[in-house]
Amino acid sequence: MDHEADAHRTDLMTITRYVLNEQSRYPESRGDFSILLSHIAGLAKLLGLAGETNVQGEEQKKLDVLSNEVFVKALISSGRTCILVSEEDEEATFVDPSLRGKYCVVFDPLDGSSNIDCGVSIGTVGFYFYTHNIFGIYMVKDKENVTIDDVLQPGKNMLAAGYCMYGSSCMLVLSTGSGVNGFTLDPSLGEFILTHPYIKIPKKGKIYSVNEGNAKNWDRPTTKCVYLFIQFPQIFLHSLFFRYVEKCKFPDDGSSPKSLRYVGSMVADVHRTLLYGGIFLYPSDKKSPDGKLRVLYEVFPMSFLMEQAGGQSFTGKQRALDLVPTKIHERSPIFLGSYDDVEEIKALYAAEENND
Ligand code: FDP
């Protein structure tokens, strides 16, 4: 970006202009949603800049807690929210009726905590951390009578979803249900600028992204047929998921093998998948029978964005956005990314089901 030139430009699509333009498509709207989105963009900006100045591993750890406090306080003071669900808080926060609005916001203020301590030096500012947040927004039916069920809705009811990635640049990727747009923070302007309009994920990708260190635990549950497992352990080593990953490495149709990329921060891995194509997978395994990733603030927002960008998201049983969560911190296996790659996983699961 040419920051000096940009400072004099009046035609840049900032996040504020974008949100206001979106609002003008709904003449009946009162602007609450726009105000809420602007608050979230403001918060992301704050955290994006904070990431650059935190140099102590220990201080950065506290960023989890700090960012949660900042998010919760700012969302409450926006006057547009009624329930907040954060990864950091065991219970949902019910906003005091005097400050209540009609939106439920679910978020993970700082996702990818295992990567917080391994930043990359960018010279004078110290460490640059790969830490992220994810959010999803729902609307409540009756703001006077708010219950936890207002937030336990299927992902397909979401109004908007997005994430902010604090990487080599600070990016806000957002969908309000009409495509996906990416904004990059220009620190000299203090504004998010539309840099990636109408993101479309390639129909098929060349990358798979998974924690392959879990491979030992991918075997099918053996409880039903302990006898078989003792007699023929090798058949279990070729479980569905194991076979899929082997196929990525040793394709049997003459195509080139896929590359493996895994950062270990969902936002970073999904962001790359969105831009380059491919598939991101976190299946269930013996250690985590329900998968690891959280339905409300990881699986849903990312699935919403994937679908909006032309990709797919699948839990191993159904379309991820059709899931109806029963508790706020529920987990689910997840396979998301390019349309054709997810289609392949779906076909494998369907074949497996027919074999059972
Ligand atoms: P983390 O535990 O570091 O907070 O949701 C949590 C998450 O990171 C995701 O961001 C990431 O995709 C995943 O867990 C990484 O899990 P593994 O370390 O098991 O691969």
Helix-strand blueprint:
Blueprint: H1 3-7, H2 15-24, H3 32-53, H4 57-77, E1 81-86, E2 93-94, E3 103-111, E4 120-121, E5 127-128, E6 131-139, E7 160-166, E8 170-175, E9 181-186, E10 191-196, E11 207-209, H5 226-231, H6 233-237, H7 240-249, E12 259-260, H8 266-276, E13 279-282, H9 295-308, E14 312-314, E15 334-337, H10 339-355
Parallel strand pairs: 1-3, 11-12, 11-13
Antiparallel strand pairs: 1-2, 3-6, 4-5, 6-7, 7-8, 8-9, 9-10, 13-15, 14-15
The structure holds 2,6-di-O-phosphono-beta-D-fructofuranose.
2,6-di-O-phosphono-beta-D-fructofuranose binds next to helix 8.
Please characterize this protein's 3D structure.
By secondary structure, the protein is α+β, with helices and mostly antiparallel strands. The protein is built from 10 helices and 15 strands. β9 and β10 form a beta hairpin. The longest helix is centred in the first third of the chain and has 22 residues. The chain is globular and about 60 Å long. It starts with a helix and ends with a helix. The structure holds 2,6-di-O-phosphono-beta-D-fructofuranose. 2,6-di-O-phosphono-beta-D-fructofuranose binds next to α8.
